Amino acid sequence: MLITKNSNIIIFILFILTAIAFAISARYFSKKQKIIRTLSNLPIQEIGKFKNNTLTHYSGKAFEIHEPLIAPFSEKKCVLYQLKIEQLDKSLKNSKWKTVKKEEKAQDFLLEDNGNFAFIEPKDYISYVVTNKKVVFDALNKATPKLQNLLKRYEIENINWNSRKPLRFSESIIEVGQQLSVAGIANWTSLDFPIKHYSYSKIIKLSSTKSQKLIISNLPNNKK
Question: Is the pTM of this model over 0.85?
Answer without folding.
Answer: no
